[in-house]
Amino acid sequence: MPRLSNSTPKYCKHSASGQAYVSFNGQQVYLGPHGSATSKREYDRLVGEWMAAGRTMPSETATVTVTELCIDYTRKCDWYYRKNGKPTREHATAKRVLKELRAVYGKTIAIEFGPIAFKAFRDRYMKRKLCRNTINRYLIHVLGAFRLGVENEKIQSNTWHDIKAVERLRKGRSKAPESKRVSPVDPILVNATIPFLPAIVAAMVRLQLATAMRPSEVCIVRPDDIDRSGDIWIFTPHTHKTEHHDRPRIIPFGTTAQNILRPYLLRDENQFCFSPAETVEQVRRQRHLDRKTPLSCGNVPGSKPQKRNPKRAAGNCYTTMTYGRTIKRACIANNLPKWAPNQLRKLAATNIRRFCDLEAAQVILGHSSKAVTEAYYADPNIAAAVEVARKIG
């Protein structure tokens, strides 16, 4: 198998014949008389095709291994699964799947990786009792690596079509367990947790419950992103989950949401309303007020030197992880059942569904289709069905 080069092949001259040539991974291709316009055009064409094909010549397809396909797909994932300059979670998932694929089938010639090998790789995840949806999501990246190989003309299309013929795991039709459906959090539990949360996180919880925002959206609220010209404020996040589908995200803020958010708008327009650094400062201030040691003893604010480069420092914006972790810690510390911000969104979505039709709920929740709203976030309107049954007797 020829070694893949990372440098651009040079335009060279063959001294004996006077011909121009270019070398691709050890394979020489003659272009015509050295220095001629024809040879230079041919050089540009071949180099362009070689780079577009992932630095591989079409004649090398018979020796392309699964490892080479994984390397190409990893390079694509590095820029494809990226948002606001940072890798997304799917980027880490893809790398994890490709690492295992290379460990098991890395030396296998790609055209020899067929449906049997694909199902054998799938069964490795089934033996670990991973959920059906998780396994299907993992296998999408295996298919993606082979599809990219076809796109770059490294392998024939029939190789990809063969493994694509393997049916996805269907609900109730496989041994893979089903994932547990996320249920709405009990409102009583939310109200019991709020007093033990920092004031800023408690405001985030109340705002999310009033608007049914995603946890990632409530973390990035900024004054500059809110249109306050009307009686209903309109929040347009500067980034959101479905922006790569070129879909706008608009979140209306009613009176309740406005009252919750108003104290946190007194800052620069481009600063985040909910800041972990402010939470830390508030906690320290409250601890100082609650201290029982006289000020003449022990440390006082400002007396302890600050570390120049602390390993952990509070930032200016909450993440979904820090937001959820704060709620979890409050529940554990006060012997309350643990719950997550996603459950709060589902509770809000279910409440919205009771007061409006499915289409309105879809818009408020920011879903691409009504099916997503109905299947995952808004439980059926049982009250309406009961009323129909009462009328028909």
Describe it for me?
The chain is mainly alpha-helical and 393 residues long. 49% of the residues lie in helices and 7% in strands. It is built from 16 helices and eight strands. The strands form three sheets. Strands 1-2-3 form a three-stranded antiparallel beta sheet, covered by helices on one side. A three-stranded antiparallel beta sheet has the order 6-7-8. Helix 2 (66-80) packs antiparallel against helix 3. The protein is extended. The protein starts with 11 loop residues before the first strand and ends with a helix. The mean pLDDT is 84.
Major sheet description: 3 strands, antiparallel
Number of helical runs? 16
Poorly predicted segments: none
Terminal residue distance:
77 Å
Report the structural category. Answer: mainly alpha
Query: Helix content range of the residues, please?
Result: 40-55%
How many β-strand stretches?
A: 8
Return the string of H and E elements: EEEHHEEHHHHHHHEEEHHHHHHH
Share of β-strand residues:
5-15%
The strand line-up of the biggest sheet is 1-2-3
- Gyration radius over CA: 29 Å
Residue-averaged pLDDT: 84
Rough shape?
extended
SSE topology sketch:
Elements: E1 12-14, E2 19-24, E3 27-33, H1 37-52, H2 66-80, E4 82-83, E5 86-87, H3 89-105, H4 115-127, H5 132-151, H6 157-164, H7 187-193, H8 199-211, H9 215-218, E6 226-227, E7 233-235, E8 251-253, H10 255-261, H11 276-290, H12 320-333, H13 341-355, H14 358-365, H15 370-377, H16 382-392
Antiparallel strand pairs: 1-2, 2-3, 4-5, 6-7, 7-8
Helix pairs in contact: 2-3, 2-5, 3-5, 5-6, 8-10, 8-13, 14-15
